[in-house]
Inverse folding.
């Protein structure tokens, strides 16, 4: 078996509004959407700089719900950008809330975390330093001893 691609597939309450948010906050480009006559989106795809994010409205009749239906999410999506501070600022302007302000991290990124208006969490970072795996482990171990 060979895996060709991996796609994140999000279910949200109000997919049309989510598409608008992701285009404003992250610069995503809508590839297409499939909508029912009622307007409910059964499938849409967004291009995030060459990576595809799939999303759809909630379908409770098939037990497909977004994180707001449960009050939590178990997944964080990470996007690597040119300027994490700027992308986080744009996301907040578009309606996201900050979970963790951006800061320089031990693993060589400046990153922060937001929750989008639909309950999904996003880690947003940009590269600041090349770090070999053994040095990263040393820094992580030191951090865990302090914490």
């Amino acid at each position: 078996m060979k895996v060709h691609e991996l796609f994140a597939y999000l279910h949200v309450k109000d997919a049309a509004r989510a598409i608008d948010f992701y285009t404003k906050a992250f610069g995503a480009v809508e590839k297409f959407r499939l909508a029912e006559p009622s307007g409910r989106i059964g499938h849409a795809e967004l291009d995030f700089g060459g990576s595809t994010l799939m999303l759809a409205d909630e379908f409770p009749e098939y037990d497909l719900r977004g994180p707001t239906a449960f009050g939590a999410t178990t997944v964080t999506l990470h996007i690597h950008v040119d300027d994490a501070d700027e992308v986080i600022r744009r996301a907040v302007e578009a309606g996201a809330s900050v979970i963790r302000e951006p800061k320089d991290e031990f693993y060589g990124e400046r990153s922060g975390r937001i929750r989008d208006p639909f309950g999904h969490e996003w880690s947003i970072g940009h590269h600041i330093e090349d770090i070999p795996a053994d040095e990263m482990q040393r820094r992580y171990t030191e951090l865990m001893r302090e914490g």
